[in-house]
Every structure is written in structure tokens, then in C-alpha cells.
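Proteins fold reproducibly. Next comes an illustrative record:
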Amino acid sequence: MNFKKCKIGESIQLKSKRFNFEKDCIVTSIIGNEINLTYYDNECKEIVNKVLTLEDIKYNDYELVSLH
């Protein structure tokens, strides 16, 4: 999924093979080259906010997949 195609309120899956990470998230804001994602972490039992930059996607640290 292209970083620029993300919309606020959209549900996406955030994946990272490098960090062994896969979470279903909601896009909460997009400002410049940053996208803010929110998800529930079952291990910590709390809601987590994560900020990704365009570089995180560009250098394949993370992959965004639409859940629609």
C-alpha cells in the first residue's frame, strides 16, 4: 500500500519482517511525511500510538496493507 493513499480512519495492517511485528491499526492522523497509527497491544494491555515516517516505508522497515 502506498503511504500517500492512506486515509484517516482507515484500518490497515502494519507488518515488519525485520522487527517480527504484525498489528491491525487505525490511521489516526497524517501530517507531512508522518503517519500516526493506533492499535491495541495484547501483551501490554494498552492502546499504543506509533508514528511512521515515509523513510520507514521506503527502506522496507514496515509494510502497510489495507484491510478493506
